[in-house]
Description:
Elements: H1 2-10, H2 13-88, H3 93-99, H4 108-121, H5 146-157
Helix pairs in contact: 2-4
Amino acid sequence: MLEMNEQQTKQTDTERLYNDLADGQKDKTEEVEQTEQETAEEEIYSEEELEVEREIAHYQTKIEALDDKLAQYRADSIADKKRQEMRAVNYTDAQIERYLSHVEGETDAEIKASILELTTEIPPRDNYGDPSAMNGAKQKPTHADPGEIGRKAFERIKGKLRWGW
């Protein structure tokens, strides 16, 4: 330490100023180099972050696409359940496509209840014909007089009887 003090006392004022300026510039250049290194590290870090963000965005779009597919599969599955239930109560394919939007619900019980309500408003096709659709009720014959029935029976068999009296 004594040696430094002696050197400083031997230096002139201008030399000290010059040395101070040189030391200041060295400090500034060191600071600039450090900041450049830090910014380079930040840029590398920023590039890594950007790459991670790009991957995250890519995966988010994949997730959204899969969610859309899942929603479509779910909707198709529900529509298929509705079609099966409508076929079970004898609706035709044309009726099914026409009235499918009137059937509500997502679970089997809700779909069945909705179709039951629909059958009261719009009857399904019958698989059988009504035999009395154009015919009225069958007329019942009039009752015959029992005395008349007896006389006709006697007339038929009277020639076959042997009269033994």
